[in-house]
UniProtKB/TrEMBL annotation:
PROSITE patterns: VOC. CDD domains: PcpA_C_like. Pfam families: Glyoxalase (PF00903). Gene3D superfamilies: 2,3-Dihydroxybiphenyl 1,2-Dioxygenase, domain 1. Keywords: Dioxygenase, Oxidoreductase. PANTHER family: RING-CLEAVING DIOXYGENASE MHQA-RELATED, RING-CLEAVING DIOXYGENASE MHQE-RELATED. The keyword Transmembrane helix does not apply. This is Ring-cleaving dioxygenase.
C-alpha cells in the first residue's frame, strides 16, 4: 500500500477575484471547477489545474473574505511547488514575474532541480520547479487556451514543504503512507537540520514531500496566504477503504470516508498538526460540466443542488466566463 503521489493542495484567500485573476492570467492555470466549500457553503472553493484538473495538478483555494493574513511557522505547509517543463521555462517565468511585479528570488538550484521561489499577492510561498531532469509521476497537460505558451506552462504540483518542530513523528506517518527518504539537502537557515526529501510511488516532483525542521519558529497561524491541507492520491474506492482500515488500525483520529463527488476523501492530522487528506483519482471534474466550459458556472454536487438558490444568495458574484 503506497499513495501514488500528490493529488491536490488547498490554500486560503481573502480576495477571490484577485486570486482568480492571478492564477489564471499571471500563472496561466485553468480554473477547472468553481464550487463551494462543502463544509461552509458561504465560501467559494476554486480548483486550478491543467486542462481538465487531472489528479496531481490541482491547486485549490477556499475564499474567506476579509480573513487576516496567515503567520508562517511550524506545523504548517510552508511552500507549494508547481512544475514547468524545462530550465529555459524558468527564464521565461523570471521575465514574466519582473514584467508583472511578482515578488520572487533569483533562479537557483534546490533539491536537485532548478527552482524559482516566488509569492502570490497574498504572500503564499510558492516555487516553480523545472522538470528538465525529472523522472517519475507524469506531468499534466496544459490547457491549449491558457495565458502562457504550452512550452512553458505549469503542468502540475511539485514538491510540497512541511515545516515542523519534531520531524520524527511526521516522517513516521509519511512512512505509513509509503514515502521513503530520497535525500537530504542543506537547510535554508543556519544551525537548522538538513531538509529531508521524501518520495512515494513512482517518485519525481509529483510525488515529493520535503520535511523542514525549524526549532526557531513559533506555530503558524491560519489566514490568507496560508495552506489548509495537502492531499495524496489513491487509485479508487477499493483502495480508499483499505486506507481507512489502516488508519483505524493505527488508531489515528480521522474523518472517516467523506464523499466530495468529484473524488472521495479521508482526512486526518499527522502528529505535528498538519492536515493530510487521501483522495481518489476519480471520478473527476468533467462529471457535471462539459470539458469546454469547465469552471465557467457555479457547480454543485447533487447533495447540494436543492440548496442552490440559498447558496448563490450568500456568495459574492464571481464572473469566470471565458471569451
Amino acid at each position: 500500500m503506497n499513495v501514488k503521489g500528490l493529488h491536490h493542495l488547498s490554500a486560503m484567500t481573502g480576495d477571490v477575484k484577485s486570486n482568480y485573476n492571478f492564477y489564471t492570467d499571471t500563472l496561466g492555470m485553468r480554473l477547472v471547477k468553481k464550487t463551494v466549500n462543502q463544509d461552509d457553503t458561504t465560501a467559494y472553493h476554486l480548483f486550478y489545474g491543467d486542462e481538465k484538473g487531472n489528479p496531481g495538478t490541482e491547486l485549490t483555494f477556499f475564499d474567506f473574505p476579509g480573513i487576516a493574513p496567515g503567520k508562517h511557522g511550524v506545523s504548517s505547509i510552508s511552500r507549494t511547488s508547481l512544475r514547468v517543463p524545462s530550465d529555459v521555462s524558468l527564464d521565461y517565468w523570471e521575465k514574466r514575474f519582473d514584467d508583472r511585479g511578482v515578488k520572487h528570488d533569483p533562479v537557483a538550484e534546490h533539491a536537485g532541480r532548478r527552482s524559482l521561489f516566488f509569492e502570490d499577492p497574498e504572500g503564499q510561498r510558492l516555487a516553480l520547479v523545472s522538470d528538465e531532469r525529472n523522472f517519475g509521476v507524469a506531468a499534466g497537460t496544459p490547457w491549449a487556451q491558457g495565458a502562457v505558451p504550452s512550452e512553458h506552462a505549469i503542468t502540475g504540483l511539485g514538491p510540497v514543504t512541511l515545516t515542523v518542530r519534531k520531524p520524527e513523528s511526521t516522517l513516521a506517518v509519511l512512512g505509513l503512507l509509503g514515502f521513503k527518504e530520497k535525500s537530504r539537502v542543506p537547510a535554508f537557515v543556519a544551525d537548522q537540520p538538513d531538509i529531508i526529501v521524501m518520495q512515494a510511488g513512482e517518485g519525481g516532483s509529483g510525488a515529493e514531500v520535503q520535511v523542514e525542521t525549524r526549532t526557531d519558529l513559533s506555530v503558524a497561524s491560519p489566514g490568507k496566504g496560508g495552506v489548509h491541507h495537502v492531499a495524496f492520491r489513491v487509485a479508487d474506492q477499493e483502495e480508499m477503504q483499505a486506507w481507512i482500515n489502516i488508519v483505524i488500525q493505527f488508531r489515528i483520529p480521522n474523518s472517516g470516508y467523506v464523499e466530495r463527488y468529484y473524488f472521495g476523501s479521508l482526512y486526518f492530522r499527522e502528529p505535528n498538526g498538519i492536515l493530510f487528506e487521501l483522495a481518489t483519482d476519480g471520478p473527476g471534474f468533467a462529471t457535471d460540466e462539459p470539458f469546454e466550459t469547465l469552471g465557467e458556472s457555479l457547480a454543485l454536487p447533487p447533495f447540494l443542488e436543492p440548496k442552490r438558490k440559498q447558496i448563490e444568495s450568500k456568495l459574492k458574484p464571481l464572473d469566470t466566463r471565458r471569451s
